[in-house]
Design a protein that fits this description.
alpha/beta; Rossmann fold; six-stranded mixed sheet; five-stranded parallel sheet; 7 helices; 11 strands; 28% helix; elongated
Amino acid sequence: MKKSRAIYLCSPKKVEGTISLPMIKFNLIKDKLDFQECDTLMFTSKQAVYYVNELDKSWKNYPVIAIGSATKKVVQELGGDVIYQPKNYYGKELANGVLKYFKDRKILYIRPKIISFDSKNYLENRGVILKEEIIYETNCIKYSDKTLEKNAIVIFTSPSTIECFFKSFEWDSSYLAVVIGNSTLKKLPSFVRAVVADEATIDSCIKKAKRV
């Protein structure tokens, strides 16, 4: 009988059937928010939603553009109103959706310190003013005495998880990467064998890892 491959999940989320290998930790860097000059909020991560809910629950008074099904789910669970979610989270698709449907809105983009696509600059070059609030940052978790099994499958859920992984581990040619989307895929070194999940969710990554 063929031995199943170890699946390492490089996310803070723990999921049965995978080996937890969190690569990043979050730190809140704001203590208040100002919604006065906006009429719509935009989130590209569920962590941003959690932190905003900690800081100021009046965010629920504003309609939300949510990027990713996990982000949309958290917004709705906490009582927010999602008015738009692009089918895929590719930076240009997001920006073009905003251009098409929300060009006259005063959007506040609540985000982490480091992002994979500069939506603000892209939209401003096309006439849409997007305000930003950077409310949290991600930092790497370092590993010095942990090794991965041969033939492991490693799930990367963001570009930052890739960056942090390679600060602690060397890539073995027997490994296979499963990535959550194309923006994450682009951050992998060229020597890494990789496949992309069918949907941009952790559950979809795990399903893909179990099929390959």
